[in-house]
Structures are given as structure tokens and as C-alpha cells.
């Protein structure tokens, strides 16, 4: 099951602009220029906490398209253990280098019986695709909206090809979106969506919250 990050469009030339929503659903517009304010999510040098801002610029035009960092090192072992993940099973990055559109990290939970390598796996990810682009794709089937995960309002959804043991959670960010993709094992029954939400609630504080962290 592949992480779903399609649905973006691109064009050449022109000045990038976006609407962004934050607390109070304030909408602003800004051009991608060196004179952007610290409050603007397009200002890649901003050191301000923009964790409650949701950008709507298309992923293909986002200034973070080629600035997505490897997120694997961001999660401390203590947070992974709290999420039910076994850090000793490794951190498997989609790419060790910045990758356009998507950067993810694969984690596993140990099999409590010791007979198998894992009982389930989860892939937290970041993308420059905004949350509307992600959720509005034909292959995405939302089962719950406006679910609180820390300060974020998340979507719980399935994608075409998912089984009852798969589930995905995502929310908008200043750089695009955060996603979690859970994959269960048929011999280890679990409520996939409830488990994905629990994992997201344990790990959300470790995603970038300031543009200056996107390096």
C-alpha cells in the first residue's frame, strides 16, 4: 500500500501565492518574495511557531517542495515506545535525503509472541501537498473529519486498495500536510483507525512547527 500523494498540478512562471488558514480561520495572501513576514508560511526562513497554520498553496508550487527533511531522527525513542513502536526494529526512511513531495519514515511494533518480525507497521510522513489536495483525491474515502490531534484538526480515511487492517490519518500544516499510514497483520487483530489515531497523538509534537526547521 503506497502513501497517497498525488493530485497536485503544476505550471511554469509567475509568482506563487496562497491562502492560509489558522486560528480563527483568518485568510491571508502572500507572494513568494524575500520580504515575507514571520507570520507567512511561505517565508521559509521564519522562526515563528506556525503549528496551527494550514497552507493552501498547491504542493507543486510550495516553497517546501524541495525542502522536506528526513523526519526519522525527529522521533525520540521514548515517544516511539509511548506509541507502541519498538525502536530496536529500526527507522526506515523513504529517503535519507530531501525528496520532493514526500518524506516518510517506517516503524514497526514487535510481535508479542516472538514468532513474527512485527505485529503492525506505521509510516509517519510529511508532504508539500496541502490537505485539501490530499483529501479531495478520488481514491481517498474519509471516515471521520475534524478529529482533534493536539492543536490539529485531522481526517481519518481509507484509500482504494486498503484492507480492514489499514488506515490513514492526516492534517494540514504550514508546509502542506502530515500523514500517518497504518498497516496491520491479519494474524494480529487490531482496530486500525483507532490505533493510527493513538500513534498520531503520541508523535504529533515531533513534526516541524517552524519554517526554519524545514532543512
Description:
- Strand 1 and strand 2 form a beta hairpin.
- The protein contains three helices and ten strands, in the order βββαβββαββββα.
- Strands 4-5-6-10-9-8-7 form a seven-stranded antiparallel sheet. It has a three-stranded antiparallel sheet with strand order 2-1-3, with no helix packed on it.
- The protein has 215 residues and is mostly beta strands.
- It is 11% helix and 29% strand.
- Residues 6-33 have low confidence and may be disordered.
- What portion of the residues fall into strands of 2 or more residues? 25-35%
**What value does the average pLDDT take?**
83
Q: How large, in whole angstroms, is the Cα Rg?
A: 17 Å
Low-pLDDT segments, ≥5 res: 6-33
Structural class: mainly beta
Distance between the termini: 28 Å
Order of helices and strands: EEEHEEEHEEEEH
Short synopsis of the structure:
It contains three helices and ten strands, in the order E-E-E-H-E-E-E-H-E-E-E-E-H. The protein has 215 residues and is mainly β.
Essential attributes:
3-stranded antiparallel β-sheet; 3 helices
Layout of helices and strands, plus pairs?
Blueprint: E1 17-21, E2 28-31, E3 54-55, H1 77-82, E4 92-93, E5 102-109, E6 120-127, H2 131-135, E7 140-149, E8 152-159, E9 166-172, E10 177-184, H3 192-203
Antiparallel strand pairs: 1-2, 1-3, 4-5, 5-6, 6-10, 7-8, 8-9, 9-10
